């Protein structure tokens, strides 16, 4: 009869478990799309510049030293490294949940029962030899160990641990992405600083040229060949160039401080070779295949690992609908007299119990967690697909930009050469009264503008190479 009741109870629990497990909320499912075009702009080159180590990609020793310092001191990178430590500790915590928890306890107390209670009346009715009866005030001394363990029959805890591992790996890729961003930002800022140095030199030379032209206008005015208007026009042009000089100096200060901030240090001069900028030749970049982005770009790998963690979170949330099996055990010693405390087996106590429990009626909280986990999984799918799409478009844009900037630089170089010759021609024509002062003024202005634009284009060329190296996933390895 007793066995029958046990079997009935187990059968009822199994029916309840099956009921709660089968009635799961319906959710939308979506498989991520990993497909990418076969090539960039029809090229089938399998060699990718992303595989070049950054120390070999950047050949300027001053820039290499700056990047080295940034990788050691940058605050954002150091914050990300702590994220990795946090994720690593989360793995230990989830791993610990798979193991039984064991605690120890030591206790002492007093217990006095009422005379007119079942316990008190029972003690009084028992015939015990005087001196052997239970004391009216009963001390209690005990110590022992207690263990609790949730049997992971639905892999809830295992999946939680796997999810923590995926999140840890995602933080590592996140750190790699911060590294690639940091290297690109330092390099771009460095080239911007070199460009501003060269623009400043051009403006200073132009100020000297304009000052000479101003003196010439003053002489021409004394000879009544030009009016006061020409003198004032050239004087205004000199003042405008001097104002531009201070603007560029301010830009240099801000760019230096930007680099110092990336390097995690207070403002100080940035060591650089200003004279080599115009001779810098952007290295040839090989894009490789779009499919290589999946392995090279840290942000894509991070999104993929976060998606894997989100899928595991859904499984963990789903397992909450199933009953959980818990086992508890305890062993120790207990007695009302310390002298009896270690007597075995008289004072030995132990227990062993198991329980199966699951949600039955009010499951709204569990449903909400399950639906939230599934929504986050869908978000992770979209984030992963967006990372792939973004990576491809960034590479395609930078490849096109490199090609167009090279063509633009060649044309601007010819423009600068032509305008440099036109300055001498306009001065000669002015001296022979075959050109007016306005033509001289506009020629000098156009020449200055073209030289500044040439420097800007060179900077954009170098930045585009840095950006495509970053877009291909280079720098972190």
Automatic annotation (TrEMBL):
Top-rank taxon, per record: Bacteria
Topology versus the membrane: Lipid-anchor
Cell location: Cell membrane
Cleavable signal peptide: 1-23
InterPro entries: MdtP/NodT-like (IPR010131), OMP_efflux (IPR003423)
UniProt-recorded name of the protein: TolC family protein
A molecular function GO annotation: efflux transmembrane transporter activity
Coiled-coil region(s): 67-94
Alphabetic keyword roster: Coiled coil, Lipoprotein, Membrane, Palmitate, Signal, Transmembrane, Transmembrane beta strand
Primary location recorded for the protein, binned into one broad class: membrane
Keyword Transmembrane: yes
Lineage, highest ranks first: Bacteria, Pseudomonadati, Bacteroidota, Sphingobacteriia, Sphingobacteriales
Gene Ontology cellular-component terms listed: plasma membrane
Family: Belongs to the outer membrane factor (OMF) (TC 1.B.17) family.
């Amino acid at each position: 009869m007793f066995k029958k009741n046990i079997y009935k109870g187990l059968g009822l629990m199994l029916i309840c478990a099956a009921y709660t497990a089968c009635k799961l909320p319906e959710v939308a499912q979506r498989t991520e799309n990993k497909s990418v075009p076969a090539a960039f702009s029809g090229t089938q080159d399998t060699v990718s510049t992303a595989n070049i180590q950054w120390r070999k990609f950047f050949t300027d020793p001053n820039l290499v030293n700056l990047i080295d310092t940034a990788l050691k001191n940058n605050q954002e990178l150091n914050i990300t490294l702590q994220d990795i430590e946090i994720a690593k500790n989360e793995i230990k915590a989830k791993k610990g949940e798979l193991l039984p928890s064991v605690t120890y306890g030591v206790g002492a107390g007093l217990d006095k029962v009422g005379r007119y209670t079942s316990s008190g009346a029972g003690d009084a009715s028992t015939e015990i030899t005087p001196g052997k009866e239970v004391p009216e005030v009963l001390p209690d001394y005990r110590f022992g160990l207690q263990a609790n363990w949730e049997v992971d029959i639905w892999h809830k805890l295992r999946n939680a641990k796997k999810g923590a591992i995926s999140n840890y790996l995602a933080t590592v890729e996140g750190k790699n992405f911060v590294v690639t961003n940091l290297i690109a930002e330092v390099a771009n800022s460095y080239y911007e600083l070199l460009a501003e140095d060269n623009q400043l030199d051009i403006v200073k030379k132009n100020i000297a040229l304009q000052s000479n032209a101003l003196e010439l206008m003053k002489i021409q005015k004394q000879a009544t060949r030009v009016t006061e208007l020409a003198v004032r026009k050239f004087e205004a042009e000199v003042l405008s160039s001097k104002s531009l000089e201070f603007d560029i100096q301010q830009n240099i200060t801000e760019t230096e401080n930007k680099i110092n901030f990336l390097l995690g240090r207070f403002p100080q001069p940035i060591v650089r070779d200003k004279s080599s900028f115009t001779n810098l030749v952007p290295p040839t970049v090989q894009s490789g295949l779009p499919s290589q982005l999946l392995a090279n770009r840290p942000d894509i790998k991070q999104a993929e690992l976060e998606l894997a963690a989100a899928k595991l979170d859904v499984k963990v949330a789903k397992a909450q609908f199933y009953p959980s099996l818990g086992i508890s055990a305890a062993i120790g010693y207990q007695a009302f007299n310390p002298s009896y405390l270690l007597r075995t087996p008289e004072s030995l106590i132990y227990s062993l119990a198991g329980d199966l429990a699951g949600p039955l009626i009010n499951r709204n909280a569990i449903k909400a967690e399950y639906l939230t986990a599934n929504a986050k999984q869908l978000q992770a799918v979209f984030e992963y697909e967006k990372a792939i799409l973004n990576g491809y478009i960034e590479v395609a844009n930078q490849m096109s930009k490199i090609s167009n900037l090279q063509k633009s630089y060649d044309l601007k170089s010819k423009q600068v050469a032509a305008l440099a010759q036109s300055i001498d021609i306009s001065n000669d024509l002015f001296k022979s009264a075959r050109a007016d002062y306005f033509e001289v003024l506009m020629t000098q202005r156009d020449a200055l503008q073209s030289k500044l634009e040439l420097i800007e284009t060179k900077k954009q060329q170098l930045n585009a190479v840095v950006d495509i190296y970053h877009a291909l996933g280079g720098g972190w390895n």
